[in-house]
Structures are given as structure tokens and as C-alpha cells.
Amino acid sequence: MRAEGGSPAGPPPGAPGEFRQQALAHLDSLYSFALRLTKRPPDADDLVQETYLRAFRFAHRFEPGTHLRAWLFQILRNTFLTFYRREAHQPVLLDKEWEDGPDEPAGGPALDLAVMTVLDLERALTELPEEFRSVLLLADLEGLALQEIGQIMDIPIGTVKSRLFRARRLVRRRLADYQHRHAP
Length: 184
Description:
CATH superfamily of the largest domain: Winged helix-like DNA-binding domain superfamily/Winged helix DNA-binding domain
CATH architecture of the largest domain: Orthogonal Bundle
Order of helices and strands: HHHHHHHH
CATH topology of the largest domain: Arc Repressor Mutant, subunit A
Helix content: 55-70%
Distance between the termini: 68 Å
Number of strands: 0
Strand content: under 5%
CATH class of the largest domain: Mainly Alpha
Number of helices: 8
Radius of gyration: 20 Å
């Protein structure tokens, strides 16, 4: 549909600024999700930037009254999958200094239990297949409803529930394994 003057019909002149302001309100949540997907701050920055470029470019396709946050998360996830497939690599979980193992990073003293638990959780999340990790992060970290997650990932709610259940079960198993291995 074209408006007078031959340009595509879009939001009214005052709406783009409002759209940008509403979209940018979700920057922290998008960055957090991007960082969990990419595991590297520079990659997360690039992913969020590309997400916003695409969102602003296609703002005219956004249907007012629908959930903007879910739409932005969908763009971010699809952008990640596109780049991930193109790059065909999984980002590194920890910095080089942690490669010797979680007990003695860079020759320092043993990590305390709280830090170990965080590292174990991070490792367990990283080991999840992407479709399980994304559902778990969107539900438990970002607090999105199952319906919103289904929209973001373009899957039925039943699949969201199944993946979320399986993801939580896999993480619990991994954490139990890590705890068992590091028990005194």
C-alpha cells in the first residue's frame, strides 16, 4: 500500500520517534539475552545493534497494539541464528584464563561455592542446544509469557512448554553432575 507521493504507507510523522523511544526501552533486556546467546560482549553489542537497525528499518511492519518487546526479541533471535549459521561457530564460554579448569583459574586460590555455582550454571546453559537455551532464557531470565516465547521462536505453545521442561531438567542434571564431581 502506498501513501500519496509514492512512499510506502507507514506510521504517522510523530510516531517514529515514539516507536524508537519505546523500542529503546528494551535495550537492557535485549543486551542481556544477546550476551547469553553470544557469550562475548562485543558480539552481543553487534547483535543488539543489528537488531535495532532491522527493527527501525522495518518499523512500518510492526502492528501497533501487539507486543513490541516480543517482536524485538524475535528479531534478535532470528538475527543471531542467521549470523550463527553463517559463522558456523559457537562462542567461547569463558576467557582464556579459565581454560585450566574451574578450581584453579590462572593459578589463583580455589573458587568459593557461590562462584563455582555461577560458573556451573553458565556452563550448563551453554551446553544446552540453542532451541532449549533460548526458551529457558526468555522464560526464566526475561520473564516472558509462554505465548510471547512461542511468537518469538515461531513455535506452538505446547512446544514452548515441552522445551522449557526439558531445558530445566537438563540444567538440573548438569548442575547435579557438577556438584557430584566437585563434592569433597
